[in-house]
Amino acid sequence: MLGKYHEALGELEHLVVMWLFELAKVSMSSIGYKLHQQISKGLQHQSEAICKAITHYNVQATALTLPHPVVSWKDITKYTIL
Q1: For residue 29, is pLDDT > 80?
Q2: Domain region containing 59
């Protein structure tokens, strides 16, 4: 059970880090319009994947003997202001 939790946590962390890097790319002023559009589309897909990963993580976190705290999309978006 703990292995599945760590796997879900690792996947969520991986997706969030990728999302933050892509978000940083969008804010760069030196990129062109087409690249900006491609990055924005990628961010949408990554956001959907993160939502699925959050759901999977929350299922695993609550299934543990000592439940771990659940995560929400709001918790993830707090990292964008760092």
Answers
A1: no
A2: 2-81
